Amino acid sequence: MEDYRELNRASWDERAPAHAASPDYAVQRLREDPAHLSDVVRFDLPRLGDIAGLRGVHLQCHIGTDTLSLARLGARMSGLDFSAASLRQATLLAQSAGADIDYHHADVYDAPDVLGRGVFDLVYTGVGALIWLPSIDRWAQAVAELLAPGGRLFLRDGHPMLFALADIGADGVLVLEHPYFEVEQPLVWDQPGTYVETGVEFQHTRTHEWNHGIGEIATALLEHGLQITALVEHDSVPWEAFPGHMERIEDNEWRIRERPLRLAHSFTLQAVMPGG
């Protein structure tokens, strides 16, 4: 049986340098312009609020563009990812930008053992993270253990309805094919490309993914003691999820071209650990 961690890690390790070199991540601009923020964090700003002085951790941080952006908003940031190649790119970016960010190589489920328990004011998880995890309950447990009393989770991710779609037909029909709810067996993909502009031909193309319903995510957080304070569904995502069927809108977001309000594309969930 394939080990999902090793399979997925090989994919992310190979893609990390290609992502860092792609114009879609705007790494060079982040290096050169100390005021620049990633598109994802700019989208988050109205809900993120003032995070200056907070002790924060970005789980599944990839190459660190969002982590750096959160640091530029005044948070004292750490980053964690299971891909060593991604962390090399994140570290190089932070160093070149003059940012004091500590990065840690570990699986997200092991984050409390690596980073400490009850020490973070902010746990941030960005777009495209949760589908790589087989158990949303174990993720919620890790988040709860990381947060200090009064600390906050900020999560934006692709909507599980988006991930349940197989495709969009030529007539604009949305084709539901994949599980909306978490299931034991992963969806196994074999895809040669990636979600950003690059000319690199990849060798590691197989990955394992899991969907998690909104109710499952909320319930897992509640069962581990968090209180949900906000849940917003959005009609856009920050990547072209269905090439040929989407249009780019403001903030470098994408949404389906025909009748976009049929589909929740992404969501933002916030929750707090009582106390503090």
Concise summary:
The protein has 276 residues and is α/β, with parallel strands linked by helices.
Give your account of this protein's structure.
The protein is α/β, with parallel strands linked by helices and 276 residues long. 32% of the residues lie in helices and 25% in strands. Strand 6 (165-168) and strand 7 form a beta hairpin. The mean pLDDT is 93.
Distance between the termini: 45 Å
Number of beta strands: 13
Helix content: 25-40%
Q: Supply the number of helical segments.
A: 9
Low-confidence segments, given as residue ranges, are none
CATH superfamily: Vaccinia Virus protein VP39
CATH architecture: 3-Layer(aba) Sandwich
**Which strand order do you get reading across the main beta sheet?**
3-2-1-4-5-13-10
CATH topology assignment: Rossmann fold
CATH class categorisation: Alpha Beta
Please identify the structural class as seen in this structure.
alpha/beta
Round the mean pLDDT to the nearest integer and report it. 93
The count of domains is 1
Please write the string of helix (H) and strand (E) elements: HHHEHEHEHEHEHEEEEHEEEE
Radius of gyration: 18 Å
Question: Which range does the strand content fall in?
Answer: 25-35%
What is the overall shape? globular
Q: Largest sheet at a glance?
A: 7 strands, mixed
Strand-helix topology:
Blueprint: H1 4-21, H2 27-32, H3 39-48, E1 55-59, H4 65-72, E2 76-81, H5 84-97, E3 102-105, H6 111-115, E4 120-125, H7 136-146, E5 147-158, H8 160-164, E6 165-168, E7 174-176, E8 187-190, E9 206-209, H9 214-223, E10 227-234, E11 246-248, E12 254-256, E13 266-272
Parallel strand pairs: 1-2, 1-4, 2-3, 4-5
Antiparallel strand pairs: 5-13, 6-7, 8-9, 10-13, 11-12
Helix pairs in contact: 1-5, 7-9
